Amino acid sequence: MIRPYAKWLVLLAAVGVLISVFLYNGQKLRDQESRPLPAKEDGGIAPDVGVIPAITGSHAVNVEAFGAARSRYEITLTAQVSGQVSELASVFESGRIVSKGDLLLTLEDSDYRAALASAENDLASAQVDLLEAEREAEQAVLEWKASGMTGEPDSPLVLHEPQVKQAQAAVANAEAAVASAEKNLAQTRVRAPFDALVVSRTVSPGTYLQAGNDIAELYSADRIELSLPISQLDWQKLPGIEVLDNGQWPVNLVSVETGQQWHGYIQRTQLHLDDTTRQQSVIAAVDRPLEQADMLAPGTFLRAEIKGRELSDLWRLPSSSLSQRGEVWYVNNGVLARFSAGPVASDEQAIYIRPPASLYGQTVNVLTHPLSTYMPGMAVNPVEASDE
Prior knowledge:
By secondary structure, this protein is α+β, with helices and mostly antiparallel strands. The protein is built from five helices and 24 strands. The strands form five sheets. It has a seven-stranded antiparallel β-sheet with strand order 3-17-14-15-16-13-4.
């Protein structure tokens, strides 16, 4: 007969055996994860993995933004004086380009010529009156001196000083009237205020215009500009405002619809944030857009690629190198290793990763397409892939 305490001893021994088995199996699993997988017994080799060599370096990361092309100036040309349109220039048609100073239309000007002639007559009369007043003033001075009286006369009227000033004011007023009449007459001939594209014309021969009536819609032809809103994160990739504002920083513009490209530059920066988007904009420009081999028309929607400043100590990798878990896998002495990473920057072609300091200066084979089944320490055969 087995004594009671002997049963407890047997039970304790069984529990000890089970614990030992669990500890042994756990250690074996950890050892297996930390060493390369053994070669297959049938002589198979480790699986191939596509890699790309990566080394820390400096990279200029492009910043992408979108905007619509607009002319530097967009104005509604209006009549400055009233009159009937007597003549339109042949170049004054929608879709045509006119140069600064080109005559666009002429208003009937007989009334303005008459007004100018009247103003010139008034000026001539005022000048005669001034000459007479000045002569009378000289005569009054001579008479005062001949009278033998000393000192100054009791009233300036004695020497005709107020009369001369009145005549001088009348001449000045007449001169201003002539200048105004000349300006009104000149404005009966409407000219292009700058090199411009005629977008629309609202008058015809015989149209009677009041001062302030619309004549045409004009877009300047000297420069196209587009506002490019940029996030605060992307601003960190660009050089300082003093560099951007010098008018030489390059930007490549691509039509969203056709893919046509133009080379432009950053003309200036906006120094405020948009109230709605909370983004700050740069203004890109293309000079003489209508004279380009591929004409850049106002209203074209464009994708801008702005060259960024150089960022140091980065890997340039295809975007597929970053796993769904945010990890970069690489081959270290024939086995897989990994580290967690987030892109410092990205563009259409690549992502830019800052690797651990221990990998600086080394050429590291980074996997181009890491799989979720990979495990650290897994033996692989790296095969160099093309840069994506």
